[in-house]
Amino acid sequence: MSHRFLTAIVAGLMVCAELAGQTKPPAPAPKSSWIHPKTPWGDPDIQGIWPGTGMIGTPMQRAANVGDREVLSDAEFLQREAQRKAEAEFDSAEYVTDAVRCDPKRGGLGNTPDTCANGVSIGPPLYWQDRGTPNKQASLVVDPPNGRIPPLTPEAQKLASERAAARRGHGPADSWEDRSSWERCLTRGAIGFLPTGYNNGNEILQAPGYVMIRIEMIHEARIVPLNGPPHAGAGVRSYNGDSSGHWEGNTLVVETTNFNDKATVNNTPLSASGRLIERFTRIDADTLNYEVTIDDPLTWTKPWKIAFPLKRDPAYELFEYACHEGNLFMADALSGARAEEKAAEAAKKGAQ
Amino acid sequence: MNSLRRPRFRIAVALAGLLLAIRPVGAHHAFAAEFDIKKPVKLQGAVTKMDWINPHAWIHVNVKGPDGKLVSWMVEGGSPNVMLRRGFTKNSLLPGTEIIVEGYQAKNGENRANGANITFTDGRRLFLGGSNPDDPTREVK
Fold it and tell me: Counting Cβ atoms within 10 Å, is residue A1 exposed (0-12), middle (13-18) or buried (19+)?
């Protein structure tokens, strides 16, 4: 795609966003009489900021004892609410010591290998995290009916052990390539909509023939051509793949292929045959249902689906995300690992 | 359903929830790779500036060393968005404000730290949660 063509698209999107801003919002109507808005050129209008913040805390996979129920029972929901209240109390506590933060009896809050080691917390304060709104959805995975990700194929399992073998002998930060694509400011994974601890803003802008989907975390913007040309050739592969969209009634359907072998879903790289089918359906003024089917027969034994609602929040702002600027993580992690190696070597010499 | 309204049952459910719940805390990068649990630091000093940058903000603090000389430290914070959503504004930590930071120094020995606990000198915490718009315990006024 030429630079000039890209500039034209971005300019078009900006004009459209401005036009959309100029149209007067319709008077609030009772929910039942809500009419799906249209863009000036007649497409269903799903533009806006749709953060996934509310869904933080809804697990990816369903607990085994919940079985095939997509909706939690009242008692299970009470548990989730209690957990959320405990988090809020924890966040609001005047002073939280490491011992408390790492105490599993406090529900394991903040107690992950990354943040707690030997009873000492090295993570950021937990009040620097967003929290979700307790809801009754049992899991983000809705298909298979048990809400569990299907098993990997034997080929994918073999690939996973080969990758693990290749990693053996590497330290945690021998090279920048030992760190995750998220830490390297490349991508958080092939499905940017999955809720995470913070920066869950998602923005959708439309222009005639195009939809732009912007994910706040790491700042990923996908420009999706509608009813466009076929996907790029098999040799063209990337972290975000090649997206193509069309409307089915009021639902935007986006099919993405051409992922590279580092584009992951649930920490598993997609294969060359990997395909994501996303469906965006606005069901009222403030709710956009998001669905994504993961279809990769070389990786999972059957296709599976994630679905959850996104809530419109015009007050939510997405800020500049120049991920490498002022971000000292990579330099600190690499030089920190070298410093540790030096110290270990010096200690070894001292002991001799 | 009636049993749910009984206080004892509700407490039992709440406790079960606390014991069962393990929710990973997502963060852009692993603090464990950057900071050293063997190097705890307690810093007191005046804020000189704040970098409001993604994915993590930096608070710059001038810390007086044992020899009386001022040493500049950087303390890693949350993302600008989550801090603003929690009610933290650009006026919350003006230059000159004295703070106490308890955290862990960078593994490479640079004067950088995470801020596991940040308080003002009168003991108040840097800012309290509760103003998160998604917080169900927030009082709507």
Answer: exposed
Q: Find chain B residues with C-beta within 8 A of A322's C-beta.
A: 53-54
User: Going from the N-terminus, what domains does chain A have, and what CATH number goes with each?
Assistant: 35-56+141-156+187-314 (2.40.128), 72-136 (no CATH)
- Whether residues B76 and A124 touch (CB distance < 8 A) is answered with yes
In sequence order, which residues have a C-beta less than 8 Å from that of residue B100 and are 6 or more positions away? B42, B43, B44, B118, B119, B120, B121
Q: pLDDT tens, position by position, for chain A (352 residues)?
A: 445 544 555 444 444 444 444 444 555 555 578 999 999 999 999 999 999 999 998 999 999 999 999 999 999 999 999 988 887 877 777 666 777 777 766 645 555 666 677 777 777 777 778 888 999 999 999 999 999 999 999 999 999 999 999 989 898 899 999 999 999 999 999 999 999 888 999 999 999 999 999 999 988 999 999 998 889 999 999 999 999 999 999 999 999 999 999 999 999 999 999 999 999 999 999 999 999 999 999 999 999 999 999 999 998 999 999 999 989 999 999 999 999 999 999 999 988 7
Contact between A127 and B86 using a beta-carbon 8 Å cutoff: yes
Q: Per-residue DSSP letters for A139-167?
A: -SEEESTT--PPPBPHHHHHHHHHHHHHH
Q: Please name the residue of chain B whose CA is at the shortest distance from the CA of residue A52.
A: B134
Report if pTM > 0.95.
Answer: no
Matching CATH number, B31-120, of 2.40.160.20, 1.10.3900.10, 2.40.50.140, 1.10.150.20 = 2.40.50.140
Domain extents for chain B?
Answer: 31-120
Pairs of residues, one from chain A and one from chain B, whose beta carbons lie less than 8 Å apart: 244
